[in-house]
Amino acid sequence: MTPATVIDIGRHALELTLLISAPLFIAALATGLLISVFQAATQINESTLSFVPKLVAIFVTLILAGPWMLTMLTDYIRRLYEAIPSLIG
What rounded mean pLDDT belongs to the chain? Predict the structure, then answer.
């Protein structure tokens, strides 16, 4: 196994990690932005107010995007295991 192969595998793993986590991060970011606008409009300065809506948004996003995320992850792991003989030899 060459250093270029190791770097390529690591790069693909990082790309997959970013791709899988993106829907959850976007949901948390959008929910936090909406809650912040609401807090600024109503002048409610409670830091714990955004926790529950963010948790619900991430949970709903995980339910909706979970099968896609799991498929992406299992496809990557399957391709990685199938490539083991060519990486060793």
Answer: 93
